[in-house]
Structure formats: C-alpha cells, structure tokens
User: What shape does this take?
Amino acid sequence: MSATEEPAGAPLKTKVSLLTITKEWTRLGCIGFGGPPTHIALLRQMCVEERNWIGASEFEDGIAATSLLPGPASTQLAIFCAWRLRGPIGGILGGICFIVPGLILILCLSAAFLARHPPTWILGAAAGAGAAVPAVAIHAARGFVPASWKRIGSSASQRSRWITYGLLGGAAAATIGPYLVIVLLACGLVEVALRRERGVENSHHGMVLGALVGHGVAAGGLFALAWVAFKVGALSYGGGFVIVPLMQHDAVTTYHWMTGGQFLDAVALGQVTPGPVVLTTAVVGYAASGVRGGLLATVISFTPSFLFVLLGGPRFDQIRSNSGIQSFLTGAGPAVIGAIAGSSIPLGLAFQHDSQIPVLAGAVVWLFALRRGVVSGLMFAGGVGVLLALSGVPV
Assistant: This one.
C-alpha cells in the first residue's frame, strides 16, 4: 500500500526528515499571506500534489476534522500534516516553524505601530488599514454562510434556528463582548439538545464541553492576558476572525491595554502578515506587556491547537463521525458567523477620524463590488491612509 493510500494514523514507510519539515514549514510560514484558504492551498500543493506525502482523501479528511475543532483550523492542518509525516516531534516542529516567521514580523510591526510617538506615515497607514477592518469582518462572515446554511438542514424550523443563532451571536458581539463565548456555547448546546430530543443523534458517543464562566481575571496583569489568549485558542469556534469579538472588549474596555484605534491596527496586522490570523493575539499581548506579553499570548493561544492535533490526530475519523460534535457546530456555527459580522459595529465605532469613513466605503467596494482580496484591500487602504496623513489630514 502506498503512502497516498494509507488510512489516517497509519505510519508512513519512509519518514520525512525533520530538516525537511523545518525547511518546508518555515517556507510556508514566510509565504502564507492571505489567511486559511492560502494556507490550505499551499499545504495541499506541497503534501499531496508535489511530494505525494499524503493521500488526497486523507488530506481532505484532515481539513474536515480540523474545521470541527476550536482554534485556527489552517494552523491545526499544518500541525496535522507534519504530525502525519514524522509523529509528535514532526507535528510540534512543523507547527512552530509555520507560526514563528509571522510572529517575528508581527512583533516588529507592533513595536512600530504601537510606539508612543510613531512617524506620521505609520499613523496614516494604521488609520487607513484599520478603517477597512469592519468591511473585512463582514466579508469574512459572508464566506462562512453557504456551508453553515447547508449544515443546518432544509426545514423551516431548522432555518429559523439558524437565523436565531446568527442574530444572538451578532447581538452578543456588538454588546457583551467578554461573554460572547457563553453565547456560542449555549447555541451549540441548544442544538445538541434539540437534535437529541428528535432522535437525530445516535448515542454511541457522548460529548463533553466545558467553559470557564465568569471574570476571575478582573485584576488584570499577565493572568488576564493568559485568559484572553486561552479563550482565543481553546474556545474560538469558526476560524481565525472570530477572535476579533472575543478580544476587543477585553483589550480595549476591560483592561485598557490599547485604544479602539490600536485594536483596529492589531486586526489589520494579523491580516496582512503571513501565517495564522490568530497572531493578532501577539499584538494585543505586546500592547499589554511588551515582547514578553506578545510571546505569552502567542504560546497560550496556540497550545490548544497542538494538543488537539497531537492527542486527537489518531482519532480524527471518530471526531468527524461524532454526531454530538456535528450538532454542536450546527448551532455554534451560525452564532459565530453572526458574531464576526456583529463585531463590525464596535470596530466601526472605534474610528477616531471622519476621514476613515470614505476609506471604509472604498474597502466595501473593493471587497464586495470588485471582489478583490483582503490582503490587497488592507494594503491599498493603508496606502490611502499614508497619502492622507502626508497631505495634512488628521489621522
């Protein structure tokens, strides 16, 4: 049986060297601009099409399984592919090499953008790119709609629940940011209960979900930063952009680590740098406690992804077939979409200058009318901001 035909979890006959994993996953971390779609395409091209390391069907199973896990799915897929080639050591090494290039870049940019007295052109770039972020949030939410709508089912009651979950998630993101996780969990658990009552679920597997409820970190400091990063890594269902509503209220209002405008900068930096979008947490950590905070937030936010893959990789088939997990995501998914879209409201309210409004309008045209890319849109908006700043417009 060839490597491309082996079932998930089966050992490969020829192991890929750790040096190769180091080189190739670092390369992916350096060129992975564009978020999860780009990361998945690059991994597929390398592991399936060019090197024939992993079979096409197993790679697709890996995508499906990691999409069911909380946290950054494309990062988990990168860890999974490296784990598949060289076991736990390969998975850890591959994940680190995928994350570190973007981490280094984003910490350097954080030092520039969050400096006490940054140059005028940096202020303009930040204001311009930040102005486009609400449009990026709505664009990200729209991308999740088709698959989630299909998952919920075709009956009127099922679709009514989808709309309800979405509205709840949107309202929570716009009003009660710190408690958004509770709303996401509640929507998922309600759907689990409803489907169990209707006999949709089978009973051979249970599902255990836990959440840390309350504000035990109200005192702030590194413990508070650790809690915020943990929410991002372990409780963020629905991909990288859901971190925005999870973090914004904590970073800006609760702990005052950064202003609303600086948070917009953080989201923009997470979008335009290579690697995982979740590296936005490093910017928040840097604002809270310098390089130490950036590194702490990164380690905590990505540790659950490593644990999920290294411990769950051999059981990905069971995860995919677990009806409890499927039902939970059927309810939590539309709530996540609503939360991502709803985050555009507090993001827009964080604008500091009226000049950002036409930049936002231009971003809407760029993303929705012209159907151009997010990274190019943010770069263009940043360039407009630089021109405005250099021409004397307040930024």
User: Anything to note?
Assistant: The chain has 16 helices and no strands. The mean pLDDT is 86. The chain has two domains: 11-98, 99-390.
